[in-house]
Amino acid sequence: MMSSLVGAIKDVREGRELLNNLTLRELRSKYKRTALGWAWSMLNPLATIAIYSVIFGTILHGVAPEGNPSGINNFTLYLSCALLTWNFTSSGVQATIPTLVGNANLIKKVYFPRELLIGASVISWMVSFLIELGVLVAVISFTGHMVLQWIPVVLVLVFVQFFLVLGFSLALSALNVYYRDISYLSGIVFQAWMFLTPIVYPIESIDKAGNKHVFIPIKADIWFWHDFPVRFVYKLNPMVHYVTAYRNLLYDGRFPGVSSLVYIGVMTPIVMIFGWSIFRRMIDRVAEEV
Q1: Cβ–Cβ < 8 Å for 257, 150
Q2: Is 183 exposed, middle or buried (CB count within 10 Å of its CB: 0-12, 13-18, 19+)?
Q3: CA 115, 102, 90: angle at the middle one, nearest 5?
Q4: What are the b/e assignments for 253-278, b being 16+ CB within 10 Å?
Q5: Dihedral sign computed on CA atoms, order 2, 270, 261, 53
């Protein structure tokens, strides 16, 4: 396992020029033949934020907690910190899933580390995420909150999140070669996952939930009460901790909690290694299957 990992890192390092070229290809093709070009990288998230702000903030009367210690009390900014973070994970993974199938001709013609295709796609989405974060930081700064001091920490967090997205992308793109339903199923899963992440609501509402009594079936006509640990299960979701960390930095103006950072630091390498191991196990026959 360790020797394979070292070998993979060596392959990627030796193929860094190809990775650069593939990334440039992804960036150039993303908004090719569009009138607004890269402006869409800002307009798309801004439109999404506007829609969610109207629905959840105005119509459903969503209220954002006051930033501590920033003092900001703005639902749109509170939503933006989480929604942009979520979009990087969701869009990055879902757009990368069909990458191997979509590059079938290239894969059949020449050998190169297939991880480079996945890495290039994820990097292109990270670039979009950084542009969106830049706009958000400018808007927050315009409100009078000095967020610039937290930019280095935010960039480290983006770098770490890149490996979370890469881990999911490696596993699902390889599985999609053999099971094409993955592309369609992922849309349903990510939609549910979004609402299991504190994006349009504060995490405090989950903290108040405590344990819930649920009926557990044993056999026909035999059920029993059981305390379901809502908070514990909910916080197994890594995106809960990423969203919380970004909000702490950008909205609250303080260093993220230790528990969130520890969970991110443990879960992200696990997802990355697990995704890479699935990818390497299934990649040998990919040229035949695509």
Answers
A1: no
A2: middle
A3: 70
A4: beebeeebbebbeebbeebbeebbbb
A5: positive
Using the structure block, give the residue that is written with the tokens 């819930």.
Answer: 212
Please state the domain extents for the chain: 2-289
Residue 95 DSSP SS3:
helix
H-state helical runs in 97-114: 99-102, 104-109
Report phi then psi at 235, rounded to 5.
Answer: -80, 5
Phi, psi (deg, nearest 5) at residue 74:
-140, 115
Q: Could you give phi then psi for residue 45, rounded to 5 degrees?
A: -65, -35
Per-residue pLDDT of 187-237, as tens digits, reads 999 999 999 999 988 888 776 655 555 555 555 554 444 555 777 888 899
Answer yes or no: are the C-beta atoms of 36 and 78 closer than 8 Å: no
Cα–Cα distances in Å, from 137 out to 90, 154, 194? 21, 11, 23
Per-residue pLDDT of 91-117, as tens digits, reads 999 999 999 988 888 888 877 788 899
- Counted residue by residue, the chain has a size of 290
Residue 217 β-bridge partners? 223
